[in-house]
Amino acid sequence: MSDKLPSPRMIRAARGLLNMDQLTLGEHVGVSRRTIIRLENDDTIPTNQRRIDVIDAIRLKFEELGVRFIYADRSTGEGAVMSRGK
């Protein structure tokens, strides 16, 4: 697990891995589809605590479902992959 927040691009990639639509993701974390759309289209660093909480809930749900987020560093870009054994 990580204490970092996934970017909108990473959230979209994780949904793609699980073939999950925005409505379903919203239902999993208790927000509307419109909220998920807004989060996925906003590349700014979140400062609003509610937004941070929702993104963290998304991260936790995807990790629970077997998705591992890859955070960009000097040697790799960001992304999402399925954890081994899932």
TrEMBL record:
Return any one Pfam family short name: HTH_3
Q: Which organism is it from?
A: Tardiphaga alba
PROSITE patterns linked: HTH_CROC1
Q: What is this protein called?
A: XRE family transcriptional regulator
Q: Which spans are transmembrane here?
A: none
Domain HTH cro/C1-type intervals: 11-65
